[in-house]
């Protein structure tokens, strides 16, 4: 068999297999057409035999159900096959390279999964007596120790459930500290234009006014513009470093000194900590608080929306305001402080029930201990190396908005597509036909038609070379006038390109039988 990548066809024994082959079943080889489970169901079919319900007197009055529940009737093999086939349509890091920028989609070592399922970690309950979960509390305390060590910060709040939740934690702590100082009048938060969208949203939701800071042509915070915005009403700056353009903010120490001199605090978004872990301690850069996405930097599964974990490290200026609960060691026993009293009297309260994401804590600590200090140093180095390899290998056919090397992710804009009739969206959809999940598109917003690629340290050179070759091929085909091919992409998926705008405005949230005039989202 030979593969002609330029034509997108596979030739076997001299016979071309076109992408538009139509089959009677709707299947494409082993890519099976999968109907909705409701469409497969039949009345009266069931995978189990249940005894008839005994007669009883209804106690619901006029609220008793008058019709069927509407669940599909299927035999057990049908149910198993349905969900197995659906799982085969998923794309994840276990399927292949996942270049989603800003998300750090890296391999999750199976050792971590095994540790998270150990008895005593996987089967405990947060309402158990503290005396029965000493090992779990010791693990939380140990993980907290290493998070503080890696960041150079004296305190950490473990309970936040994800990155945005961590942002909320840090900013509420800053608000509590300002009010304790009698400076509640500080209500303005400075946010770079390249920040994650949750940064200004978090500040706004707790009552701060958001004041954007422009970027320089080099993609970093405009230092002069930042200093010009400082004043007696400034509460904090929320800055990501490395930033969402994949660049290190070289003026970060000067920014920290300036915000402190003005009486404000420095919140650092730690979503990109994977690029510097083991090499740079944010505490040494003047950071007052920073959330850490355990599900990104320390390799815990976060596909499909969760679960996440976002502990927040705090400087000495903010440590007293950390949210409850606190885990402390006293007289050789671990205790959980759950009331704002004693040493926790200044705590601003709770963010969530219980103590945090225990499964994520176990995975993160297993990742740290299995890598060691030298391993984490190599993690960040390899992540940066891989991103720069992609950037350098594609600069001649794609366009980068900023000069020079990047950190953990390679950022491209859409200038290389000018005059081709191909958009960033078209380009990403064509990547699906090549067997890849697309990179992050149109983010960061400060870059027109952005294509953001984060290879992480997981991928080897062979994998990156194939991905680079694929992008080169797509760029060359776009420039050669194959716009119609891109407009039709993806062509090799179970479903072709959807009308995403219509689907967002008029989503079909409930299945209806044919003929019920259901709004189609295709």
Automatic annotation (TrEMBL):
<dbReference type="InterPro" id="IPR020581">
    <property type="entry name" value="GDC_P"/>
</dbReference>
<feature type="domain" description="Glycine dehydrogenase C-terminal">
    <location>
        <begin position="382"/>
        <end position="480"/>
    </location>
</feature>
<dbReference type="GO" id="GO:0004375">
    <property type="term" value="F:glycine dehydrogenase (decarboxylating) activity"/>
</dbReference>
<dbReference type="InterPro" id="IPR049316">
    <property type="entry name" value="GDC-P_C"/>
</dbReference>
<protein>
    <recommendedName>
        <fullName>glycine dehydrogenase (aminomethyl-transferring)</fullName>
        <ecNumber>1.4.4.2</ecNumber>
    </recommendedName>
</protein>
<comment type="function">
    <text>The glycine cleavage system catalyzes the degradation of glycine. The P protein binds the alpha-amino group of glycine through its pyridoxal phosphate cofactor; CO(2) is released and the remaining methylamine moiety is then transferred to the lipoamide cofactor of the H protein.</text>
</comment>
<dbReference type="Pfam" id="PF21478">
    <property type="entry name" value="GcvP2_C"/>
</dbReference>
<dbReference type="InterPro" id="IPR015421">
    <property type="entry name" value="PyrdxlP-dep_Trfase_major"/>
</dbReference>
<keyword id="KW-0663">Pyridoxal phosphate</keyword>
<dbReference type="Pfam" id="PF00266">
    <property type="entry name" value="Aminotran_5"/>
</dbReference>
<dbReference type="InterPro" id="IPR015422">
    <property type="entry name" value="PyrdxlP-dep_Trfase_small"/>
</dbReference>
<feature type="domain" description="Aminotransferase class V">
    <location>
        <begin position="187"/>
        <end position="303"/>
    </location>
</feature>
<keyword id="KW-0560">Oxidoreductase</keyword>
<dbReference type="InterPro" id="IPR000192">
    <property type="entry name" value="Aminotrans_V_dom"/>
</dbReference>
<dbReference type="InterPro" id="IPR015424">
    <property type="entry name" value="PyrdxlP-dep_Trfase"/>
</dbReference>
């Amino acid at each position: 068999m030979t593969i002609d990548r330029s034509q997108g066809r596979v030739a076997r024994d001299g016979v071309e297999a076109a992408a538009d082959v139509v089959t009677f079943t709707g299947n494409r080889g082993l890519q099976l057409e999968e109907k909705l489970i409701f469409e497969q169901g039949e009345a009266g079919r069931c995978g189990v035999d249940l005894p008839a319900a005994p007669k009883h007197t209804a106690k619901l009055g006029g609220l008793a159900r008058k019709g069927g529940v509407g669940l599909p009737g299927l035999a057990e093999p049908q149910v198993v096959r349905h969900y197995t086939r659906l799982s085969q349509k998923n794309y994840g890091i276990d399927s292949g390279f996942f270049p989603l920028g800003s998300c750090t989609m890296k391999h999750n070592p199976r050792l971590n999964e095994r540790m998270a399922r150990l008895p005593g970690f996987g089967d405990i309950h947060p309402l158990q007596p503290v005396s029965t979960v000493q090992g779990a509390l010791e693990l939380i305390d140990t993980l907290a120790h290493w998070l503080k060590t890696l960041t150079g910060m004296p305190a950490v709040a473990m309970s936040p459930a994800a990155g945005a939740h961590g942002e909320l934690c840090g900013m509420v702590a800053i608000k509590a500290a300002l009010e304790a100082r009698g400076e509640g009048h500080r209500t303005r938060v400075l946010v770079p234009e390249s920040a994650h969208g949750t940064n200004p949203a978090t500040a706004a939701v707790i009552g701060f006014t958001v004041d954007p800071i422009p970027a320089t042509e080099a993609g970093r915070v405009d230092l002069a513009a930042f200093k010009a915005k400082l004043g007696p009403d400034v509460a904090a700056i929320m800055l990501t470093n490395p930033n969402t353009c994949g660049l290190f903010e070289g003026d970060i120490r000067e920014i920290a000194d300036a915000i402190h001199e003005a009486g404000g605090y420095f919140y650092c978004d730690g979503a990109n900590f994977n690029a510097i872990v083991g090499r740079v301690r944010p505490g040494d850069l003047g950071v007052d608080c920073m959330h850490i996405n355990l599900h990104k930097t320390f390799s815990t599964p976060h596909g499909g929306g969760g679960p996440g974990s976002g502990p927040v490290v705090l400087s000495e200026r903010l440590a007293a305001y950390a949210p409850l609960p606190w885990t402390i060691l006293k007289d050789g026993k671990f205790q959980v402080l759950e009331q704002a009293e004693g040493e926790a009297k200044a705590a601003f309260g709770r963010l969530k029930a219980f103590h945090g994401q225990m499964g994520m804590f176990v995975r993160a600590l297993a990742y740290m201990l299995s890598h060691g200090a030298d391993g984490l140093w190599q993690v960040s180095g390899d992540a940066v190396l891989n991103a720069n390899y992609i950037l350098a290998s594609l600069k001649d056919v794609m366009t980068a908005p900023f000069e020079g090397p990047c950190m953990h992710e390679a950022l491209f804009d859409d200038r290389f597509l000018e005059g081709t009739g191909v958009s960033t969206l078209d380009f990403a959809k064509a990547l699906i036909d090549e067997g890849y999940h697309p990179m992050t598109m149109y983010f960061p917003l400060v870059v027109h038609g952005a294509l953001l690629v984060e290879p992480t340290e997981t991928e080897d050179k062979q994998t990156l070379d194939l991905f680079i070759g694929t992008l080169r091929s797509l760029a060359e085909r776009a420039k050669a006038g194959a716009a119609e091919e891109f407009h039709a992409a993806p062509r090799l998926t179970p479903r072709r390109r959807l009308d995403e705008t219509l689907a967002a405005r008029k989503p079909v949230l409930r299945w209806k039988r044919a003929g019920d005039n259901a709004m189609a989202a295709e």
